[in-house]
């Protein structure tokens, strides 16, 4: 019996790791549904049956409505989250204000749509009667209580969603179940992306304008990442490190396609870059894959998930060779041997002894046919 439970636990953990984004989305909707029903359970506790009957007869309130409202609000929240890139152009306080306004409107409309629909399809009221009853429902403390609670619940759930977006989907789950308390060997593909001529551009633009340029570029990168299952490991100045879990990397060429999609995205914003910054930024990148040690590091006051190992060190050293070979994207033989995409053009550039390495490393240049 114990062995079966252990096997079941392992399978559940594997499933959670395999579909983290879908799981996070499902959990968000489920929590909206559960939270709505828990609220109504405590809200009606202690009320007499006659009072509950008056809610139903006078207001058309059904106790299945919180479930429907939770489903609808959860779905709408996901929709706005996946289309939130348009808010990037605004300051953080403005973004918060816009999200608050949109959230308030969404919650209000979802509650009213569900309530109005129930009056039409369950209570068999005509449009005029349903409209009058809905207007009456808006003025009750039930509506305001549900609205306030769902807004609070939305903020709490969205906080955990933002943490998932910041540290990677599934990371919080793995963190909570203690996966990273001890160093764990995982198979990862890593990509280092760095701005070309960063020192020159920084001197020409100044610190503030240069920072805005970097932020603009990384915002464009975040828009592209969604389509290629990448996770941001860390930002280091004008450099960003992306990772992929090899067990979930459906297409091995995703890192290559992401880089050139990012390049294409920047070209699409060429006029804006030239108008605001008088320069069109270009980037170089390197890719490597293999076994990486993943662990929780830091003190009680500040902890984070860190990657260690030769895979990252080699990838970092490889990035330094981009200028020498005049290639925007380089990779190691470990990554090259796993590629199977006819649109990726590869070229063996050299075998070099990287700094800190005892053996030669094969360096490949990668391009994408459009």
Summarize the structure.
With 370 residues, the chain is of the alpha+beta class. The protein contains 15 helices and 8 strands. It is 58% helix and 18% strand.
> How many separate helices?
15
Report low-confidence residues grouped into runs of 5 or more: none
Q: What is the CATH C level class of the largest domain, in words?
A: Alpha Beta
Based on the structure given, which CATH architecture of the largest domain is correct?
2-Layer Sandwich
Describe the protein in words.
It is a single chain. The protein contains 15 helices and 8 strands. Strands 1, 2, 3, 4, 5, 6, 7 and 8 form an 8-stranded mixed β-sheet that branches. Helix 2 (20-44) packs antiparallel against helix 7 and helix 5 crosses helix 7. The chain folds into 2 domains: 2-167, no CATH class; 180-368, Alpha-Beta Plaits (2-Layer Sandwich), CATH 3.30.70. Helices cover 58% and strands 18% of the residues. The N and C termini lie far apart (56 Å). The radius of gyration is 26 Å and the shape is globular.
List keywords for this structure.
alpha+beta; 8 strands; Alpha-Beta Plaits; 2 domains; 15 helices; 370 residues; 8-stranded mixed beta sheet
Structural topology:
Blueprint: H1 2-18, H2 20-44, H3 49-59, H4 65-82, H5 92-121, H6 127-138, H7 141-167, H8 171-176, E1 184-195, H9 198-205, H10 207-225, E2 231-236, E3 239-245, H11 254-268, H12 270-277, E4 283-298, E5 303-308, H13 310-319, H14 322-325, E6 329-332, H15 333-336, E7 344-352, E8 361-368
Parallel strand pairs: 4-6
Antiparallel strand pairs: 1-3, 1-4, 2-3, 4-5, 6-8, 7-8
